[in-house]
Design brief:
about 190 residues, mainly alpha, 8 helices, about 0% strand
C-alpha cells in the first residue's frame, strides 16, 4: 500500500471512528469499517498478521475475536461485499472489531491519527482481559459497561481531544468566573 493510500485510509478510519462513537449512522459506520478492514489488509502476505501485534495483545483472551477477524481479512478468500448480514442491523461491536483490524493493519505503516489511537485504546479497554495501562488510565474498565456507555466514553474523549478540553469538560458547561475575593473576614459585615 502506498503512503498516499495509507493517508487516505487513515482519514477514512478517523471518519469511521467518529461515526461509530456518535451512533448517528451505525449502518454507515459498519459498512465503512468492513471496507477499511479489507482494504488495509496486506493481501500478498502469507505470514500471520497477528504476529505484528504486541506480545500482550497476541495472548490476551479477550481479543480472540479480533485475532480471528484480523486473520480473516488477510485471507485471500476475504470478500467483504459477499458476507451478508442476513437483513439484521449490524451491532456497533462488529463495526468496532472491523475498525480494530484496520487500525492494527495501519499501525505498522504510519503513525496513527488521534482518532485511530483513541479508538485503539478504547477497544482494548472494552475488550482486552488485561488492557494496557494507558487504556485503563484513559477509560477505566469498560468490559462490564453497556455498549452505548462504552461508545459514549469514546465519544467524550474524542471530543475532548478535538476541542482541547479535559475529557470531563466536554460534557459539562463551563463554570462562570468567580468574583474576586474581598478582604472581609468571617463575622465582619460589609
Amino acid at each position: 500500500m502506498s503512503t498516499r493510500s495509507s493517508i487516505t485510509e487513515m482519514r477514512l478510519l478517523g471518519r469511521a471512528v467518529r461515526l461509530l462513537f456518535s451512533r448517528e449512522d451505525p449502518d454507515r459506520a459498519h459498512a465503512l469499517a468492513r471496507e477499511l478492514a479489507g482494504t488495509t489488509a496486506a493481501q500478498d502476505s502469507s505470514e500471520d498478521p497477528v504476529r505484528s501485534w504486541e506480545q500482550q495483545l497476541q495472548l490476551d483472551r479477550g481479543l480472540g475475536r479480533a485475532r480471528r477477524l484480523q486473520r480473516m481479512v488477510h485471507s485471500p478468500a476475504w470478500r467483504s461485499h459477499e458476507e451478508a448480514e442476513g437483513g439484521r442491523r449490524p451491532s456497533p461491536g462488529h463495526a468496532a472489531d472491523f475498525l480494530f483490524a484496520a487500525v492494527m493493519n495501519l499501525a505498522h505503516q504510519m503513525p496513527l491519527s488521534d482518532e485511530a489511537h483513541i479508538f485503539r485504546l478504547w477497544y482494548l479497554a472494552a475488550r482486552a482481559t488485561s488492557p494496557p495501562e494507558n487504556a485503563r488510565r484513559l477509560f477505566g474498565n469498560l468490559q462490564n459497561v453497556p455498549e452505548h456507555q462504552q461508545l459514549a466514553a469514546g465519544a467524550r474523549l474524542l471530543a475532548a481531544i478535538t476541542t482541547g478540553q479535559p475529557s470531563g469538560a466536554a460534557s459539562h458547561p463551563r463554570l462562570s468566573p468567580q468574583r474576586p475575593l474581598t478582604n472581609h473576614t468571617v463575622g465582619e459585615s460589609g
